[in-house]
Specification:
This protein is an alpha+beta fold. The protein has helices spanning 7-19, 48-59, 64-78, 130-134, 145-156, 161-174, 180-188, 190-193, 197-203, 219-231, 234-237, 240-250, 273-277, 305-316, 326-347, 354-360, 363-370, 500-513, 519-524, 545-548; strands at residues 35-45, 88-95, 100-106, 176-177, 215-216, 287-291, 294-298, 411-417, 422-428, 481-485, 488-494, 536-538, 554-556, 564-568, 574-578, 587-593. Strands 1, 2, 3, 6, 7, 8, 9, 10, 11, 14, 15 and 16 form a twelve-stranded antiparallel sheet that branches. Strands 4-5 form a two-stranded antiparallel ribbon. The two termini are 32 Å apart. Bound molecules: glutamic acid. Residues 408-410, 428, 430, 449, 452, 476-478, 496-498, 501 line the site of glutamic acid (GLU).
Length: 597
């Protein structure tokens, strides 16, 4: 069925934005709010400083990729617990000149020493506790973020890496004001951070998190950015920084006098200079599904974002969500999420063959899965995976496996430029605070991304696609997503939140494309996340009663995700949207603000 975004919805969005303070006189003033509308390009991130830097790059003539990398580098300074050069991520790019969508897989990779049993404690034969695996050398994958920035700029940008890193280095040098979120993220991690001399020195000065309102400086990180800017990422993957990363993982910088106590021994791991030197980003074709009159592009493996969002949309396309009562639309959203997660857990990992991924995203497979959605009641969870064998008809299922429940951190940014290029970029160091180790003298935290592998098989007698192995990339849920219509970009959206990333992106898309909400409304709306589990975590404001009557059982999760998005309006304006409230709220800005015509 072909449907356009209803005009009244666009008007509602514009009104929301006008009310949010889109003031033409504010053109050169720093962005402050979660929504902005105007011309000349747009940036939405979780952080005012990063959005300001991205907008300045656009104003100076840079394109969306230049602005995205400069903003991401700034997030590495101001949001160091969620993003930074010690981690990895996925970037999706719509190229206005060719009308094509490209992706960069900058996911961390496992060292050559990793095996399927690396997360099994040899002393007990049981998997390590999550905290034990996280705060150790074992969890550290070879970072992909510096290589992502360099490759994105080289393939799609106009700026040299040095210029893209300069504004962020300046922020690290001069410092920024500590806010409540920054302080809380340190306080929540104080026990882990306190074990390491390098991390304590940076984030626990005088043994405690810095006060709200104080100025936080990171001159080591400024020098690290400068070094990478001058010498390229060779300094990171083959030079001094590589040696420092290897030294940190093989001999964690445990403090002589730790701040607080940690429940587990801190284990080193075998990461080598060859592991770092061998890292390369990949450029997989995006996933694509056609959803009503839209094309939805996402990340292929090792992320499951494109598969799970795309498969769920294919299932949902079989219902006229806009024409159904609201609780029926949400019921189908929850059921489609569960089905897509069952298939993700069974079939999706770094080594998933592309033909299998294509089957999971096929309309035939979605038809089989959709016939398991009963409008009258929620299916018992977990639901079993389907059989994506290319021969479709009926509702066959495979034996069930266990659900996957990982933690959450990460950050997402979204950028559009005056030429119509669009970037969605989700980057992470996995947990908030990564593995807790700052590389001494370098000013950045290492990731714990390898804990995204399953520590032990989860799929019964079937193969688990996400067990650790040498050189393998752990499965991700990150889902930077770009939607086009007739080949032109309509919107982009992404979020942090571990596996809830998938449901948040899906829910925002359904809210926007089917349920008549503006993009600010779609992002602000209360969320629920069904990841093939018996109960459904939902935010307090999510309307449960009618869904409970259909058999859904809810638990409460205070916040789910922290999305950003951009929408390109038919009249040439662009809307930038960040969270109004979650994670302290984000910041959106446009180059030339313009409210209602
Ligand atoms: N490591 C997670 C993933 O790749 C992201 C963490 C998060 O968003 O909180 O799926």
């Amino acid at each position: 069925m072909v449907r356009t975004i209803p005009v009244r919805t666009i008007a509602a969005a514009v009104l929301t934005m006008a009310l949010a303070g889109a003031d033409p006189a504010a053109a050169a003033s720093p962005p402050t709010g979660p929504t902005a509308v105007g011309y000349g390009g747009a940036v939405a991130t979780v952080d005012a400083e990063a959005t300001r830097v991205g907008l300045q790059v656009l104003r100076d003539g840079g394109n969306a990729v230049d602005a995205a990398i400069a903003a991401a580098a700034t997030l590495g300074v101001t949001e160091p617990f969620s993003a930074g050069i010690g981690g990895g991520g996925f970037l999706v790019y719509y190229d206005a000149r060719t009308g094509r969508v490209h992706t960069i897989d900058g996911r961390e990779s496992a060292p050559a020493s990793m095996t399927a049993t690396s997360f099994i404690n040899p002393a007990t034969g049981a998997p390590y506790a999550f905290g034990e695996a996280r705060v150790s050398g074992l969890s550290v994958g070879v970072p992909g973020t510096p290589a992502t920035w360099e490759r994105a700029l080289r393939d799609f940008g106009t700026m040299p890496l040095r210029a893209a890193l300069r504004p962020a280095a300046r922020v690290a040098e001069r410092g920024f004001a500590v806010d409540a979120t920054f302080r809380a993220q340190i306080a929540d991690n104080a026990a882990a951070f306190g074990q390491f001399s390098s991390t304590s020195a940076l984030f626990l000065p005088d043994g405690a998190p810095p006060a709200v309102g104080s100025t936080f400086r990171n001159p080591d990180l400024a020098r690290t950015y400068d070094l990478i800017g001058r010498h390229g990422t060779g300094a990171f993957y083959r030079g001094q920084i590589a040696r420092d990363i290897v030294a940190t993982v093989t001999g964690p910088p445990v403090a002589d006098t730790p701040v607080g106590t940690w429940a587990y021994p801190i284990r080193p791991a075998e990461l080598t200079l060859a592991d770092l030197a061998g890292y390369a980003v990949r450029r997989p074709a995006p996933t694509r599904v056609d959803y009503r009159s839209y094309q939805v592009y996402g990340m292929a493996t090792p992320s499951s974002g494109g598969q799970a969002v795309g498969e769920a949309l294919n299932i949902l396309e079989r219902s006229d969500l806009a024409g159904l009562p609201r609780e029926q639309a949400l019921h189908r959203y929850l059921e489609a999420s569960a089905l897509a997660f069952a298939d993700r857990n069974r079939y999706v990992g770094d080594a998933t063959p592309r033909p299998l991924l294509n089957e999971l995203l096929s309309d035939g497979f979605a038809g089989e899965r959709a016939c398991l959605v009963d409008p009258a009641k929620a299916a018992a969870k977990p639901v079993a995976p389907g059989i994506p064998d290319g021969a479709y008809g009926g509702c066959p299922t495979a034996p069930a496996g266990a659900p996957d429940l990982a933690g959450q951190s990460t950050t997402n940014l979204t950028v559009a430029d005056r030429w119509g290029n669009v970037v969605g970029y989700t980057l992470t160091i996995e947990q908030i605070g990564g593995n807790g180790m700052v590389v001494p003298g370098r000013g950045f935290l290492l990731n714990n991304e390898l804990t995204d592998f399953n520590f032990a098989p989860t799929q019964g007698s079937a193969a688990d696609p996400n067990l650790p192995a040498a050189g393998k990339r752990p499965r991700s849920s990150m889902a930077p997503t770009i939607v086009t219509r007739h080949g032109r970009p309509v919107l982009a959206v992404g979020t942090p939140g571990g596996p809830t990333i998938i449901t948040t992106v899906l829910q925002v898309l359904v809210n926007r494309l089917d349920l008549g909400m503006s993009l600010p409304e779609a992002i602000a709306a209360p969320r629920a996340t069904q990841r093939n589990t018996a109960t459904v975590p939902a935010e307090p404001g999510f309307d449960r009663a009618a869904l409970e009557a259909l058999g859904h059982v809810f638990t409460t999760m205070a916040e789910i995700g922290a999305a950003t998005g951009v929408e390109l309006l038919p009249d040439g304006r662009v809307v930038a949207v960040a969270e109004p409230v979650r994670r302290g709220g984000g910041t959106a800005g446009v180059v030339r603000p313009a409210g209602l015509p």
